[in-house]
Amino acid sequence: MKTVKDNIYLIIAGVFAFITINTALFYAYPGKFTAIAYVTILIIPLFVALVLVFTRFSFLFTSRISEQEDEKKLLRERQKEIVENMVEGLVVHNKSGKILSVNSIAEKFLGIPASEILYKTNLELSKKSLLLDALFKKFESGSEKEYSYKDKYGRDYVFKIISVELSKKRGEILKIIRDISREKHLNKMKSEYLTVMSHKFLTPLNGIKWTAPSILDKDVDSADKERFVKNIIESTDELIELTSLLLRVTEMEEGNFGYKLGPVDIRVIIENSIKDRKEDIDERKILMVFNKSDIPIPSVTADKDRVKVVVDNFIDNAIKYSSEEGGVEISLEDDGKNIRFSIKDDGIGISKKAQPDIFSKFIRDDRAIAMHTEGSGLGLFIAKNIIEELGGKIGFVSTEGEGSTFFFTLPKENKKHNIK
């Protein structure tokens, strides 16, 4: 593509070439041309050349202006797209409190469409939104504040609001809104989890500490000594289990959680898991049904021990959180590409508040904690990581007070690990 300079040089070169040729003709044939001929041959072409240069310059100048306008338009569109796709809410208002600009995320946070708040003052919009009222509280430029409230469903929301002076001359101020509800919730859950885990470790440790010296007492009979030893073994097993859970989580986060792949018959894992928990099932008088497919379920390529961890976790939870004398239904199906395991219970279900984070670390539903205080809050997190690492999917459907259905799928052809 030729530049502006290249085009101008070509025109100038053409003009000089034309003049040179005509001058040569005049020298070669002196006195053969009239004054009109001189004007026609030299002046008019020179004038035409100048007109061409001017026209070319005008065209290039007009094109450049048009390109600049297109670039500015594209830049404005790009800036608008960036603002609209930001994860922060942006609200611009002036010193009198009139709202001048709102992006789509701010609309979502405020719960009010832009059409209802643009070019209106905070006084006109008073009490329309708790968060909107917080935007107009006293701020210094560059300062930030946290604002929290509960919605009508009792859910906690925490927002960080940052004030930035856009233009002192126009008196325009930008408020940046960040939703930090999840971050706060996870920090709270982590803190609570560490407190719970500390107690979980201290309980068996204290049991060992107070039981062990009794074994050395000569006055203690053999039956009591046997009971003390049994208590120490149970406390040690509890500590080992807790430590193993924490190690699994650490290994997963660091990418060191190894997998040994081979053919896995999930049906056998389910049957063994049910058999291992027969005592708990009978104690709570739960009717557990395993719906076996009429068509033989093929094995999948996976890690047998890891899949067992997931199945055990799902069955344990179903037993724990089902109603007394309730029912638990297990299904195993072949949908063509995947093997699908699901387990349905009629228990307490999962609250709407806890559902979005149920597969996260340290997360337990408040109702589940009230029912069983000893849960670690790591089982579902570990299960999700195992299934996804094996190329499958995991999920649940739950209605509070009516029970839950947890499921996972594993591919019959393990493409993630390039194994069939």
Structural features, described:
The protein has 420 residues and is of the alpha+beta class. The protein folds into four domains: 4-84, no CATH class; 89-179, 2-Layer Sandwich (Beta-Lactamase); 183-254, Orthogonal Bundle (Helix Hairpins); 262-411, Histidine kinase-like ATPase, C-terminal domain (Heat Shock Protein 90), CATH 3.30.565.10. Helix content is 51%, strand content 19%. It has twelve helices and twelve strands. It has helices at 4-28, 35-84, 104-110, 114-117, 130-135, 181-216, 222-254, 266-276, 278-283, 304-321, 366-371, 379-389, and strands at 89-94, 99-102, 144-150, 156-167, 172-179, 262-264, 287-291, 300-302, 327-334, 338-345, 393-399, 403-411. It has a five-stranded antiparallel sheet. The chain has a five-stranded mixed sheet with strand order 7-9-10-12-11, covered by helices on one side. It has a two-stranded antiparallel ribbon with strand order 6-8. Strand 11 and strand 12 (403-411) form a beta hairpin. The relative contact order is 0.06. The mean pLDDT is 79.
